[in-house]
Specification:
Layout: H1 4-13, H2 18-41, H3 48-57, H4 62-69, H5 80-89, H6 93-99, H7 116-124, H8 135-147, H9 151-175
Length: about 180
Amino acid sequence: MVSEAQALALLEKYHAPPRIVQHCRGVAARVVEIATAINAKGKAHVDVERLKIAGLLHDIGRVRCLAEHGQTESFEHRHEPESVDILRAERLPEIADLVARHGFQSLFLEPSDLSLEEKILIYADFTTERGVCSLNERLIYLREKYSRQDMRTLAAFQGNWHKIQAIEQELKALQA
């Protein structure tokens, strides 16, 4: 497993801009918070360190994706496969496996098909560079962003939002 410093060095190596690094740090902090709370309640056990590193590296492929496909992601071109490719090339398969379904692809899966660690990463990814926001705030942001760019992506988010809400409910129950 890589350290936090090594993960941050990888973000630098792959030219992650400060706003992405800030977002990744926020996601890492959020997964640690959620995982620690779940572990403390004893209702489940998750690998906090693995989640922290996955949180730091989950968007490592975003810059490459945007460079290859334009300055916005679309329904067809997502950053998750790029992140997985980079993490596998860096010999981090255990992180790549966790990152593989953290984003847009998770909308097409049932929550029951996701591991608890995947659910935590997906939920924590709703942290913005400005900090934690509610699911409603994030949906408003996504509507604004994708209504100008990609209606297929917006429709996928809106049509599957109940799955994200189910993940939130499950994680809150495990922390209670």
